[in-house]
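Hi Y.,

Following your request, here is the sequence exactly as I used it, all 159 residues.
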Amino acid sequence: MREPDVTLFGLERIDPPEQEFLAKSPMRHIAAADILLKGAKNAAHDALLQVHADAREFVLHFDIDVIAQEDFPAVNVPGSGGLRLEGVRTAFVEFAKHKNLLGLDVAQYNPDKDPDGSGAGKLVDLLVEALAARLEALTATPADSSASSAEVSSSETTA
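Below is the corresponding structure, written out as tokens. Let me know if you'd prefer a different format.
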């Protein structure tokens, strides 16, 4: 994947070497603070525009360490602040619903930091919700477009 085709969504904690790399890279990025200002749904739509999702397929790589440790501490590098689980859920569902989502991978879950499995439960719930929304969106699209075509056809024949 070419760097100009990548948008990093939810950046919060960036170390100096990462900052230097991003300053030189054509990768786009949307900081957690900007997502909080715009709202998760609007920020997700902005990110989809940046990767030209309406025109071509895209892959979603989901680093769960963008979630604030208050909501999800079972990662290698937890941190306070950043995105809350509910905001991540909202954005994740928007990405998952998009017709051109080609692939999805999830990274940074650390079961060693999740002794009671509660983090795994949250992650599974998040994936189930997003994939259910995707299935609904994909199955609703043909029905919606044929209903619109039928409405246009009937209004043309009655005119």
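The radius of gyration is 19 Å.

Thanks again,
Q.
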